[in-house]
Amino acid sequence: MSKELIRLRDLTMEFDGERILDGINLYFNDHEFLTLLGPSGCGKTTTLRIIGGFLTPTSGTVTFDGKVINDVPPYQRQINTVFQRYALFPHLDVYDNIAFGLKVAKLPKDEIDRRVHEMLEIVSLKGYENRRIDNLSGGQQQRVAIARALVNQPKVLLLDEPLAALDLRLRKDMQNELKRIQQATGITFIYVTHDQEEALSMSDTVVVMDKGRIQQIGRPEDIYNEPKNAFVADFIGESNILDGTMLSDYKVRFFGRNFDCVDKGFAPNEPVDVVIRPEDIDIVPPLEGHLVGTVTSVTFKGLNYDIIVDFRGFKWLIQTTDFHGVGTTIGIRLNPEDIHIMHKSEYSGMFGDYSSYSAEYDELTEDAGDEEE
Amino acid sequence: MKKNNALLLSTPYIVFMVIFTLIPLGVVAYYALTDPATGAFTLENVKNLGMYMPVLWQSILYSLVSAFICLLLGYPVAYFIAHQSATAQKILYMLVMLPMCMSFLLRTLAWVGLLQDTGIINDILETIGIGRLQLIRTPAAVVLGMVYNYLPYMILPLYSTIVKIDHRLIEAAEDLGCNSVQVFSKVVLPLSVPGILSGITMVFVPAVSTFYISQKLGGTDTVLIGDVIERQFKQGNNPNLGAALSLVLMLLVFVCTGIMNRFGADDEEGGVIA
Amino acid sequence: MKKANRILTVLMFIFLYIPMIVLVVASFNTGKDITNFEGFTLNRYVELFQDKHLLNLLRNSIIVSVLSTAIATTFGTVAAVGINGLSPKLRKTVMTLTNIPMTNPDIVTGVSLSLLFVFVGSRLLGQRDSLTFWTLLIAHITFNLPYVILNVMPKLKQMDSSLTDAAMDLGCTPLQAFFKVTLHEIMPGIVSGAIMAFTMSLDDFVISYFVSGLDFVTLPVEIYSYTKKPIQPKVYAMFTLLFGLIFVLMLTMNLLQIRSDRAKGARRAKVDSKTMRTVKRAVAGIAAACLLLGVGYLFVAPHAQEQITLNVYNWGQYIADGSDGSMEVIAEFERRYPNIKVNYSTYDSNEIMYSKLANGGITVDVIIPSDYMIARLIEEDMLLELDYDNIPNYQYIDESFRNTAYDPENKYSVPYTWGTVGILYNTKYVDEADVTGWELLWNVEYAGKILMFGNSRDAFGIAQYLLGYDVNTTDKAELQACAEKLAQQKPILQQYVMDEIFATMQNEEAWIAPYYAGDCLTMMEANENLAFYLPENQGFNLFIDAMCIPSCAKEKEAAETFINFLCDPEIAGANMDWISYSTPLSAAKEYMDPETVSDPISYPSDEILANGSSYAFLPEDISRYVESLFMEVRNG
């Protein structure tokens, strides 16, 4: 759709002998909203900092508009960053923070003035020019940080977990705001987050990372619907992941039963991971079900109930709008399009079992912690 | 910051500090191990140190007593200051610090005027009929001089520590059933240990090495290690023995601060600054 | 509990401030003694501003502190930024290094630096004056640096490191990022580090005391020697002014801080930030002006060198200083020889002077040691031969003071004064019947009221007269016996003194002391209860102090001019009138107060003088032996 702007080739990064990035190959298109998504320590911030010029990769190249920019310092790159905790200059007021880059570039005073005011308008902070930074709310600081970066009219804007410090409500608003700004300005956004929902709702392209490697690249829908491996399946939304065998195209066997599915192209009798999304499962009376199990726990989630169902010792998470009490026996039906088949990977067997439901749930939600550089 | 830049910026400093703090200590050691007249290697100075051990013990005793008195006096004061309004804290803090900025020589001299046999205090004592007392040239006078000069060094770190104690901890202790004495002994005191240790160090080190205070307020028998060192250099023309004594003093101080650090007085930054 | 704390706090403040109040009151006292308030006067302040010497010292102190603070602050800040970027292990090592001057006692730091400078300067580079302004400055920078580092480091650590990233992201080079962002963030640390460094430097006595030479001395070091002599009340006036200044400064800073804190608490009012900014600018302005002054000094100082600086190193209270209507001898000299500027410092015993010279690192052009010390200096090749053509006034020196035992060929010295050593006692407290001889100094009835010489030669001399030994004995057993005698005396002594004797005897703190006749006369003039006794029968020291030029001198010709000037009968007469010592120039007597000339204490009869004896040169090993015995007596 549009031309390639940045390309990362065989990027590796090591700190004190520890490999943080392991062979990253990735390109960014102009006007794109791309999100690097992954848990803490997956290398997403490191990747961002390499693009920003704050780190020099151990090996591999970064090209910008076709030129290798490995050794170009940050202040000479046409890239600006919105930092994790905003990094606003506390000794300057709102106006001077936004004007900072323009002043360094020694632009004429009236142009600075014009652009700063324009920017204030875009981020809805008109009238806040002379406020001190510590007199602003988190959301306002966030806007100043965005304005400060955008006012320089960069080719690319890097955003490092910009919404992590905001509360839920504000975060939703800002997500819309950011998307709007991106569309209005047409600037390439490279966005780093560990929040899968944020990633899915805002991005044109999502890059899922873990352990310094890219796990999957794709449009949000593809990532969600066709996860490449157990890690992606688990990280993006909730998944029940089972061992299965691909008998032939469109035929998969798991739980001692054969199911129809929509996947093909696997070797005959290839062991595979089978992903079933909790919200895709239909609950039916026991006699009508493909499988029959017992409810072992129920959690009310507002929109739905999360119930854990024991099928012959393997526990599934099922989301349903109807209440089923603990101890109830239920049946389920699986439609072919609800069954996703993945090749086995190093992540096989690590995710998708809800036997220790609460612990895993916690692990997912507490991810909000700061990412290690 | 790039590693190279960090080295580039810090190397001149490291070189400077090595030249002007480490190497001088080496020179002191060199002097300590050579003969004053011939400059030849000798252990004579080290052997002679034994003679000065009583002086050293006396110095340690006086400064420990001073540090302890400073703690006893300083703690309630620091506690009091820490519990005033922010404005009052600032002013009181300033008032504690102010004397430290003034010539300690003259302030100590003023004590001579106060304490001597014909001094102000004795004049008053005589007028009210108590009669003149031997105040100056006693061990007590030397300790008083130390306490007077170094009390602020105790109060300031204590204050800094006490003022940082989270008030919610005290409330929590009360909530858990502590009375005010228990709150103090079980919460406040343990939390002020870093301040106490750094205060003791800051009083002990200058006190154990002073020579002016003992010269002015002491008598012929309150000789301190600092006096001896000063005299070896300035009168005795025996810098070599003086150097040996300096090494002993330095060792003593490093051992003491080492012990303090073991108790957790400071971190990398050093608890020296209040 | 709370109430007790409050009372204790109040008491503590009284305790902290009483001595300062005493000093402030003393600055308004018409009398000289700190303990007796005789009447109110502002004259001390007038005297202070007329005292070029004192103001000069203050200027020296300010120059050293401002320059060392400025250098240490810049250097330290840069270093802190560097250290902050080092690996944790290396950083820890560097911080340990930084803590050395902080943990080390000042005296050790002072001693180690002075030994370093003397060792490198004198021994390795063969320089005469290795203890100069520069070494003093280096010493101050050395102990200032840790204050800066330890204040800046925490600020750097607290600082969000992404701030500098942000600045570079917005187009700053690393250097620009430092000045535009980092500097602002760590400024509070830099300022408090600089303030700490400045106060420490301004008030530093111990390190400067060991590291400074004679030609550049700071105020605290000189105040130390002032506190030995009867202190001049103008020093109190200076203290009071500095106290007031610092108090007002600190108070203003604090009040402004409090006000701005309050303003911040609400919304920062524009007016307040404006006043704050003005104040900040004013402070920065003052600091910059001081710095300019300091740097200016560095550039101007070498030009001022067109004027010869003559370093004169003399006993305390040993030259007429203009007080009590006397001639200000040094000022008179400078008036007559405008191209020579005298830098005058004092010592209070031959041994101190000798140590200072022998330790090296300094330049001195004129010294006035006593006979036996001159012999020692000649023996050790530490004196220069004089060119008597430059000292025509030598002709006035009486015949009996030429070809002396210590300088038999008249090559090295020109007599300044002579005199006897006797006992000064207070007739109000001391029974005349007890005044029989040197044993008075061992009389337990006066325990705690007796002073003793604080130098080995004079102290041993008295023991030798008392025990009937030759004062120039080299018999170690005899010397050992003397040491025992002196050790016996120690418990009843009030103190070992030199210059301190003036104040203590005059204000009757002590009643009995041996001292030089000339000074005894000075004290007797100040306190009429004092009397002088010369133990003729036991023997006493007859000394000559003579002017010499040590081998470390740089300005020999000017030194000779100075010596010649002091031998001018008219000058010598005026000078002797004030210092009360006996003159070796009969020609000077006609310019002196006739009462002094006929005073039997100053000029005893020849019969009496026949009982006196001079100290002769002792071999090096005996000198050292005596010195170490005396140290043992004092330290034991």
Quickly describe the structure:
The complex is a heterotrimer of chains A (373), B (274) and C (636). With 373 residues, chain A is an alpha+beta fold.
Morphology call of chain C: globular
CATH superfamily grouping of the largest domain in chain C:
MetI-like
Q: What would you say the CATH architecture of chain B is?
A: Orthogonal Bundle
How far apart the termini of chain C lie comes to: 46 Å
Stretches of chain C where pLDDT is under 50 for at least 5 consecutive residues are: 267-271
Tell me the major beta sheet of chain C: 5 strands, mixed
Find the structural class of chain C using helix and strand composition.
alpha/beta
Assigned CATH class of chain B: Mainly Alpha
Structural overview:
The complex is a heterotrimer of chains A (about 375), B (about 270) and C (about 625). With about 375 residues, chain A is of the alpha+beta class. Chain A has helices at about 45-50, 95-105, 110-120, 140-150, 170-185, 195-200, 220-225, 230-235, 355-365, and strands at about 5-15, 20-30, 35, 60-65, 65-70, 80, 155-160, 190-195, 205-210, 215-220, 240-250, 250-255, 255-260, 270-275, 280-285, 290-300, 305-310, 315-320, 330-335, 340-345. Chain A is built from 9 helices and 20 strands. In chain A, helix 2 crosses helix 3 (about 110-120), helix 2 (about 95-105) runs parallel beside helix 4 (about 140-150) and helix 3 (about 110-120) crosses helix 4 (about 140-150). Chain B has helices at about 5-30, 45-50, 55-80, 85-95, 105-115, 120-125, 140-165, 165-175, 180-190, 195-210, 210-215, 225-235, 240-260. Residues about 265-274 of chain B have low confidence and may be disordered. Chain B is about 75% helix and about 0% strand. Chain B has a single domain (about 55-260), classed as MetI-like (MetI-like fold, Orthogonal Bundle), CATH 1.10.3720.10. Chain B has about 270 residues and is mainly alpha-helical. With about 625 residues, chain C is an alpha/beta fold. Chain C folds into 3 domains: about 50-230, MetI-like fold, CATH 1.10.3720; about 310-415 and about 545-605, 3-Layer(aba) Sandwich (D-Maltodextrin-Binding Protein, domain 2), CATH 3.40.190.10; about 420-540, Periplasmic binding protein-like II (D-Maltodextrin-Binding Protein, domain 2). The interface of A and C includes residues 52, 74, 89 and 152 of A.
